[in-house]
């Protein structure tokens, strides 16, 4: 009998994966991985079989490690912000 991960472990993994997905500097990558993360965890939440749930959880842990490494590389080589992204205000010299 396979012990499925607890709800708390799944929620913690979801939060970590969502944070990693939101750390991409590229707008397209960021939105894609946020959407993919939400979809994967919705499917995991609907899963009833403990074996499949355990397998999905283990795969999500592996994907989190890849996502973190990819986000770090994307931050190193990130380009200009797109027009659809929220632009930060330009600060003038002497402003706090």
TrEMBL record:
Belongs to the complex I LYR family. It comes from the Eukaryota. One of its GO terms (cellular component) is mitochondrion. InterPro entries: Complex1_LYR_dom, Complex1_LYR_LYRM4, ISC_assembly_LYR. GO terms for biological process: iron-sulfur cluster assembly. Residues 9-65 form the Complex 1 LYR protein domain. This is Complex 1 LYR protein domain-containing protein. It holds the Pfam family Complex1_LYR. It comes from Pisolithus tinctorius Marx 270. The lineage of its organism: Eukaryota, Fungi, Dikarya, Basidiomycota, Agaricomycotina.
């Amino acid at each position: 009998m396979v012990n499925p991960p607890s709800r708390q472990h799944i929620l913690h993994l979801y939060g970590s994966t969502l944070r990693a997905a939101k750390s991409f500097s590229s707008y397209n990558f960021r939105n894609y991985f946020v959407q993919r993360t939400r979809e994967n965890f919705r499917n995991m939440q609907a899963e009833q079989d403990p074996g499949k749930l355990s397998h999905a959880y283990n795969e999500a842990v592996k994907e989190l490690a890849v996502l973190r490494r990819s986000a770090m590389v994307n931050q190193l080589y990130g380009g200009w912000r797109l027009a659809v992204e929220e632009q930060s205000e330009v600060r003038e010299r002497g402003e706090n």
